[in-house]
Amino acid sequence: MTDHTHADTLRTPIVAVLGHVDHGKTSLLDKIRGSAVSEGEAGAITQHIGATDIPLSTISGMAGELIDPDDFDLPGLLFIDTPGHHSFSTLRARGGALADIAVLVVDVNDGFQPQTEEAIDILRRTGTPFVVAANKVDTTPGWNPQEGEPIQRSMEAQSERAKSMLDENLYEIIGQLSDAGFSADLYWRVQDFQKNIGVVPLSALTGEGVPDLLTVLMGLSQRFMKEEMAIDVAGPGEGTVLEVKDERGFGATIDTVVYDGVIRNGDTIVVGGQNEPIVTEIRALLQPRPLAEIRTEKQFEKVAEVGAAAGVKIAAPDLDKAMAGAPVRVVRDRSVDEVVEEVKAELAEIEVDTADNGVVVKADTLGSLEAMANALREAEVPILRAEVGDIAPRDIAVAETANQDEHKAILGFNVDLLQNAESDLENADVKLFKNEVIYQLVEDYERYVEEKQRAQQ
Ligand code: GDP
């Protein structure tokens, strides 16, 4: 049992879902949301901007005998809605990852794949505790669904043949984790989830094993949040911008995950901006209406305050130059200047070296811009200008000023070419590269340079 005498308040842990494409990240998030909604009365889920909150009462309703809610001080789990290691590694909080813990989804038939390896590297580098969801157990030949049963019992109820096939696949994954330097085991054999990675066999399709996963996540985060997180839940709010979006009636707004403290309507905030920190006053804090009402005309509900951890849309003047991935800080008990300096210092940590000559780089978040800059440095490609945001006419004009032909190029990571820049691009001697995978973008550019050099010889 937990010691309830201490006064620490633990905030909801932020959970990210990672894994190889098609291994079931989206399905798992959908299943968690769907099962939580059908749990109904027990607390239901709260929708957020960019994240879904599953309260402890709902988790314990789903997990039944697996969980004793009295064992937990945590209010629940907040899942970041966008899966994938791109969003994981580019969303930060105070230099670390925004997510506190992670679920690594691995298709039980497919085992480790390139993006699984990449995700593991990122989790290792950031020191993020994680659990492995060994997904798609229902595809085991002869699988006999046992909905509502804990997965261990489900597995015992299968035919000998199905059991041995599944075991073989699961031990393959455990072996691959071990090759990657992590000692791992099926979750019911793990005593200390910080020393050993728990593997939860499950099906995002039937839902078997999903309550087990939530239980393991609760256990893992309880320890982690107690030991690692010094959080002042009542202090001035701190968050990270997920996205800058124009919203009818509100102008430019920022979708933000608040990871510490409280943000209130009317607060003065400092937000990382494209040229300098933006100081502004909150006009409205918006959250989606409950699911049933979502089709009514007004999609958002105004709220007076939001406490960590939560997703919220912030409407305020001057947010059009805000950057995805940048910090958001409430000014309270301190001077504006002090907070501006803090935001500047945090932005300065994100290093992008530019030169007098080189390519133009555009990316969707600050973190991805930094990742692009690192990849280009390794490939020895100089950067003339690097910015967060879609590709605008100005970027094309800047790229055209490059002295060397091979540098008259724009590399866009996870961004679009703005409509008003289309004709500029057609008329300019500038080559545009766009991709959602960093190394492919760099490879495409390198191949282009090689071809250009070969043609000149
Ligand atoms: P993502 O790319 O990792 O987000 O993967 P998706 O969630 O889009 O899933 C990829 C495909 O696998 C889809 O066709 C899903 O329906 C299917 N899928 C996901 N989870 C399961 C599962 O547990 N069982 C089965 N049979 N299919 C699944």
Brief characterization of the structure:
This protein has helices at 25-38, 56-63, 85-90, 114-126, 151-156, 160-179, 210-228, 336-348, 366-378, 393-400, 422-427, 438-456, and strands at 14-19, 46-47, 51-55, 76-80, 92-93, 96-97, 101-107, 130-135, 184-186, 197-201, 238-247, 251-260, 262-264, 268-271, 278-281, 284-288, 300-303, 305-307, 310-315, 327-331, 359-363, 383-388, 409-413, 431-435. It is an alpha/beta fold and 457 residues long.
Could you characterize the architecture of this molecule?
The N terminus is likely disordered. By secondary structure, the chain is α/β, with parallel strands linked by helices. The protein is globular, with a radius of gyration of 24 Å. The chain is built from twelve helices and 24 strands. The protein is 32% helix and 26% strand. The strands form five sheets. An eight-stranded mixed beta sheet has the order 2-3-4-1-7-8-10-9, with helices on both faces. The protein has an eight-stranded antiparallel beta sheet with strand order 15-14-20-11-12-19-16-17, covered by helices on one side. A four-stranded parallel beta sheet has the order 22-21-23-24, sandwiched between helices. Strand 2 and strand 3 form a beta hairpin. The N and C termini lie far apart (74 Å). The protein binds guanosine-5'-diphosphate. The site of guanosine-5'-diphosphate has 16 residues, from helix 1. Belongs to the TRAFAC class translation factor GTPase superfamily. Classic translation factor GTPase family. IF-2 subfamily. This is Probable translation initiation factor IF-2. Keywords: GTP-binding, Initiation factor, Nucleotide-binding, Protein biosynthesis. Function in general translation initiation by promoting the binding of the formylmethionine-tRNA to ribosomes. Seems to function along with eIF-2. GO terms for molecular function: GTP binding; GTPase activity; translation initiation factor activity.
